[in-house]
Amino acid sequence: MLALAGSRRPFTAQPASEVKLQFFLGIILFVAVIGALDAPLPWPHSQKRKFKP
Amino acid sequence: MIAGHFGFAAIAKGREPAAPLWMLMLATVWLDIVFVPLYLARIETIHPAAGPHIGYGQGIIYADYTHSLVGALILSALLGAIAGIFWGERTAIVIGLVSFSHWILDLLVHRADMPILPGNFGNLPRLGFGLWRFPAVSASIELVLVLAGAWIYWRSAQAVTLQAGRRRRLAALTACLIAAFGILILWMDLTA
Question: ipTM strictly over 0.85?
């Protein structure tokens, strides 16, 4: 991931906003989609929350 | 390495169903998340190993705080402690270990650029087995982690959905997307 963050051009020439965008878009998209799909499954932690008084 | 870390998070979910998947995925890239602001502040840097272009595995990464052995242990313990507030002691340990797995996996591929102490204090030898010198090998390891993660996740998700009698298709879809996203990320990393 670190290597991808610094890809295409040397880090000195790469705009900070571009690096930030690449990194956060990738992470947010992947984790959000997979996390959102996984959350409704009847895992132990979601069951515990469901039956909490 | 990006895809391999996410693959490992999916493997961890299969073995520890009580830990939320999104938190495991966050944990597996926690060191890189902390790296970003330090990179933007030029405290941690990436230099090309050869030539001006930094492609897959072609960077020498001076992440001397986030990716030092002691720094990684401290950051992992911190994230584990935060996770413990919400999910209890066992999940705290799992999250901490998954976070530290990032350092172990990076140790395999990095080109001896990972220090032991933060800031490379004491100029101790830098660590890294340098598998990135053999991109086919390191990419294959990542692919195996992704596919193994999707498979182990699916087996575990199938077990809980069968027991509950619902959402079996959603479990299969999520496992497929873990594999698909993982392969896509690996491809993007390889062609960067």
Answer: no
